[in-house]
Amino acid sequence: xxxxxxxxxxxxxxxxxxxxxxxxxxxxxxxxxxxxxxxxxxxxxxxxxxxxxxxxxxxxxxxxxxxxxxxxxxxxxxxxxxxxxxxxxxxxxxxxxxxxxxxxxxxxxxxxxxxxxxxxxxxxxxxxxxxxxxxxxxxxxxxxxxxxxxxxxxxxxxxxxxxxxxxxxxxxxxxxxxxxxxxxxxxxxxxxxxxxxxxx
Length: 200
What we know:
Largest sheet: 4 strands, antiparallel
Strand order of the largest sheet: 1-2-3-4
Number of strands: 13
CATH class of the largest domain: Mainly Beta
Shape: globular
Helix content: under 10%
Order of helices and strands: HEEEEEEEEEEEEE
Number of helices: 1
CATH topology of the largest domain: Neuraminidase
């Protein structure tokens, strides 16, 4: 009878742990309860549900930026680059150590970042009003700062298409005040632009 009672209790405990994984963390002193799926993750498009990982949770990695944006993951280096726009710097969070360091300062109030098909960093710079590429050796190439002879407003967010073309927004937030760039006049309408890119 004792063996049977033990098996029943063990099976019930395992079933409870499987159906409610968060219950396991209740016993860990000093740690908050983690619930899966994380209720803070909300899919706005049902197509996302197919690729959503049910046991992933939102985790705060670091605080200390005035305003952080433009994260881009470098899987080959196991780090994330992100912009601290008002502080005029790009920061790097390293997975191995959890440490945050300065990647580039000043950064021309860089906002959005991504990688091109060759793995290079593509950035939208508010203050310099341009889209740049960081080469493998660390030098910076200006990809675009004018359209039809007029200066860009303040490129904001950027993505690279699978065909290599670069799409970016140019709403001009960086020239509305000195907080994330500098006050200046709009020369172009606030639009989305595509840079058809040839292989370099």
